[in-house]
Every structure is written in C-alpha cells, then in structure tokens.
Known about the structure:
2 domains, three-stranded parallel sheet, Rossmann fold, 11 helices, five-stranded parallel sheet
Amino acid sequence: MDGNPVARTIRSKIRDGVTSLRKSNIEPSLVTIIVGRDPASQAYLNTKHAACTDAGIKSRNIELPVNTPQSELEQIIHDLNQDRTVTGILLQLPLPKSLNDAAAVASIAKEKDVDGLNPCNLGRLAGKDAKLVPCTPKGVIILLKYYQVGIAGKHAVIINRSKLVGRPLAQLLLNEDATVTVCHSKTKEIDIISRHADILITGIGRRSEFTVGPDMIKPGAAVVDIGTSSVGGKLMGDVDFDNVIRIASFLTPVPGGVGPLTVSMLLYNSLVTASMQHDLEMKFGLDELASGA
C-alpha cells in the first residue's frame, strides 16, 4: 500500500480548498511550536512546513529553548488561541520530560487543534462526530479504504497504545465496526495475538528491539507499518518487509507508506480549522478522500 499516490490526490484537493477559502478572504495559517532542538523533530517539522508551502497554507514555527517553563509555553499557546490571524496550532511532540504534554495540548483551543489531540476532540471520536482527528490514525484509515481493505467485521490488532496513535486509532477502527485488540509492552505472547489479525498495525519504532517477522502474520492479512527507526543510516519500519510481503495481502513500505498520509491529514485538518472558525463547511470529506474521488 503505497501512500504517495493517495497523498497526491489529497493534496490536489487541499490546494483547491485553499484557493476556495481565499476567494472568501480566509487565509489558512498554521503555527507550529517546538521546544528544544531534537534533530528528528526538527526534520519532521521541516517536512510539515514544506508541505504547507506546497499546498498554499501559510505557516511559521516558534522555537523555544529546552528549559522553557510550562507556564511560558501555555501562555504562548493562549496568545495564539486569541490571535484571529492564526487558524491552526501544532505542538511538536514529545516535549522535554520537564514539561507536561497533556496539559500543554489541552491548552490548545479545540477549534485550532490541527493534531486532534485536545481532550474535547479526542472525546468526540467516541461519538463518531469528530471533525479533527489525529493525523496518523486518520491516515491509516484513509489508506485502508483507498486500497479497499475491508474493515467491518475484521479483527484489527494494534501494537501501540500511545495517546498519539494507538488509542485514537483503536477508536477509529471501532467506529468502522472492526473488532480491536491493542497490544503494548506488558502484553504477553504478542506473536500469537498478531497471527489472528486480519489487519495488523504496528508502531513501535525500535527496530533493534522489536521486529515483526513472517511468523507473526496471518496469511493474507493487511499489515500497516507505522514504526520508524534509523538502522545504519537507513530509515526502516517495524516490519521485515521482504519476508512479510510474501505472506501478507497488503503491506505498507517505510518510508512511503503511512508517512505521506500523516502529513496530508495535517494539511486537511488545517483546512478544517480555518473553515470551522468562519462557520463554513468543508467541500470534501473523509469518504471522498478515501475513494480518491
């Protein structure tokens, strides 16, 4: 399941959406915040800003020193919440250990929360009416639907329980009528559980410690690899691609699988926030994105 053609389709629609908003004198504007100088986080932010430029979305970054106190971070977020020229806010995670991720994310106005991680937006997932959904989980659902992988009635196993990926993804899959099992570091016999998965989604990102091999795959399963690790200077996922592809019916590559969809969903959410703040309806939704229509 190559994410690039799906992402190109979505980004084309997003560029049209930006043009449409500008005709209504609405300028989508995303502000990102990064605390510290983690190279991986900075590289990922650069990718996001490049994507914004390509889509015609204004963006800028606020870089804070690693010793920034919680009160200062939340004051900056508060000021951005009040700034009518800012339509979207993204706090790059994880934060330094001295800061409270949950409190900082909760301080982002729910209507400007392009990551979909504000408690109000996460809560709406359960009601199937969330307009702003976390980007990577949303990208996984889009990818499965685009490649016509049936979800309803299937057993989906997620090897990740993070607030950013595993938990919201579990809710999205439940909303699509899958039966969902979530595995984590305390789960026993993960290999046995994974062999029962019709859809296996893994996002550990520590290739030297954890690899999904062919012995963990049910023949014909769809496998989505969210994990990323640098091995010998090469970006790799959790999955032993060359051997698992012989067993799975679908498999995402790393890079080039879910990654392009994650960035595309950020752009989509940036359009959603800009539209919401001006009481406008989006002209295309998830079903259209998934079908490539």
